[in-house]
Amino acid sequence: MQKTSLKQNIISNFAGQGWSFIVGMVAIPLYIKFLGIEGYGLIGFYTALQATFNSFLDFGLSITINRELARYTALPDKIGQTRDLVRTVEIGYWIIGFLIGSGVCLSASLIANYWIQAENISTVTIRSTVILMGIVTFIQWPLTFYQGGLLGLQRMVLLNTVGVIFNTLRAAGAIILVWNFSPALIVFFLWQAIISIFQVGITAFLLWQSLPPSDHAPTFRIKLLTDTWRFTAGMTATSFVAFFLGQADKVILSKFLTLEFFGYYSLAATLNSQFQLIGAQVFRPLFPRFAALIASNATDELRSLYHKSCQFISVTILPIAAIVSLFSHQLIYIWIQDQTTAMMTAPIVTLLFVGTALYNLSDVPYSLSVAYGWTRLGFFQQLISTLLLVPLMIILSLRLGGVGAALTKVILSLAYVIFIPPIVHRRFSVLKGELQKFYVSDMGFPLFAVLIAAGAGFWMMPDTLPNIQFLLAMVLITLLTFGVAVLSAREMRAWAFEQFSILYKWIYSE
Question: Residue 504 carries which DSSP code?
Answer without folding.
Answer: H
